[in-house]
Amino acid sequence: MVKARQRVWVLVLVAGLLTGCANGPIQRKDGRQSQRGFVIENLAKSDVDQVTEIHQREVLRHLRVLTEKLYRRNPAEFRKAGLPSVEVATEQLFMNLAIWPTSPLRRSDWERDFRAAFREDFPGDRVHAYMSAMLAMVMTVYDHKQAFYITDQLDAQKLYNSARNIETALWKLSNARALDGAPVLLTNSMEGEIQNLSFEREFGKLIAAQDLLALVIEDSSNRVISRTVQNMASFVFLPL
């Protein structure tokens, strides 16, 4: 028992020294840092587990950015729910992550919610419906977990399928029109406005993150991904 404890402390010490010698954290524009401190639980994680957590963290960050952008372009949506600001509306959605195992989104039908966001007669907050569906779909792919260990194994095919589903959801968001011809939800610049492609950039990063992790998992699991061409205009999603 004593020797076992000594080995653990040696590992902790080595990890601490390696952390101290590592390069400094990435400093983002908004002041946040991406570097995480060492915790003892990391000893139970493989390299793939840690890569998975990094990817998931970035994916969730992109989803939050997209939610804020959609609310800023469509402020009438959060006002339908009686909310006072973009920040409050965004936080109301993402606070579900802290209680995910018991969150209503954990058990929601994300395909139904995607479609509801574009129904002509939908009376609620379309941004919330769309982004809650996106969040629920992404968490489904990660087996509803936010920490990964050696015993965990994600499905590369589901990660690949989720990237295609995001492409489909983006196509619908960009092309859906109300009966009067106006966009159901505003995204990029309208006719006569300065061109703004920030939505496409964020979605592109989101899709790339899912695709890259799918390749990592495919390589580590030796399970070949079945590549599928998705018909986005049909608004039909691949299974997860």
Summarize the structure.
Helix content is 54%, strand content 0%. It has 240 residues and is mainly α. It starts with a helix and ends in a 19-residue tail after the last helix.
Structure description:
- The protein is mostly helical.
- The chain has one domain.
- The protein has eight helices and no strands.
- The protein is globular and about 50 Å long.
- The termini are far apart.
- The N terminus is likely disordered.
Secondary structure topology:
Layout: H1 2-21, H2 47-73, H3 75-80, H4 86-94, H5 110-116, H6 126-141, H7 156-175, H8 198-221
Helix pairs in contact: 2-4, 2-6, 2-8, 5-6, 6-7, 7-8
What is the rounded distance between the termini? 44 Å
What's the structural domain tally?
1
Beta-strand percentage range: under 5%
Number of helices: 8
Radius of gyration: 20 Å
SSE string: HHHHHHHH
- Tell the overall outline: globular
Assign a percent range to the helix content: 40-55%
The count of DSSP E runs of length 2 or more, i.e. the number of strands, is 0
Structural class: mainly alpha
Uncertain stretches: 1-22
Q: If you average the pLDDT, what whole number results?
A: 84
Task: Please summarize the sheet with the most strands.
Answer: none
